[in-house]
Design brief:
It is built from no helices and 11 strands. It is mostly beta strands. Strands 2, 4, 5, 6, 9, 10 and 11 form a 7-stranded mixed β-sheet that branches. It is globular.
């Protein structure tokens, strides 16, 4: 069964850090562009960051620029989201999603993170909870 699985969420105080991981199984992540989304309580899912398959182009939502860093290790079929200087507003369920890089619909610099929900992703993870609280 082909799937994505996130891990690394947890409870951290404001100013703390977490590193989320997104591992694929059943398919080769290297052929896919990856997006990270989050859904805060009572809010719609929103795009946070993305990274292309091999060119390693990246993009971030404005409110996480300078604090979050997306990366990937294709040899390990894994993508990462390093989150530093976490704020209470960063709390929510974080999801990773994958779309074939050949579709060229994600992380090409031609659409803002607010439009990523319009992209039909090939795979979604089930999410990992991030809580930022003292």
């Amino acid at each position: 069964q082909s799937q994505l699985e996130e891990s690394g969420g947890g409870l951290v105080p404001p100013g703390g850090s977490l590193r989320l991981s997104c591992v694929s199984s059943g398919f080769t992540l290297a052929y896919y562009d990856i997006a990270w989304f989050r859904r805060a309580p009572g809010k719609e899912r929103e795009g946070v960051s993305c990274i292309t398959s091999s060119t390693m182009k990246v993009d971030y939502a404005d409110d996480v620029k300078g604090r979050f860093t997306v990366s990937r290790d294709n040899d390990k079929n894994t993508a990462y989201l390093q989150m530093d200087s976490l704020e209470p507003s960063d709390a929510g369920v974080y999801y990773c999603a994958a779309v074939s890089t050949y579709q060229r619909v994600l992380c090409r610099g031609d659409r803002s993170p607010s439009t990523w929900n319009d992209i039909h992703m090939d795979y979604w993870g089930k999410g990992t909870q991030v809580t930022v609280s003292s």
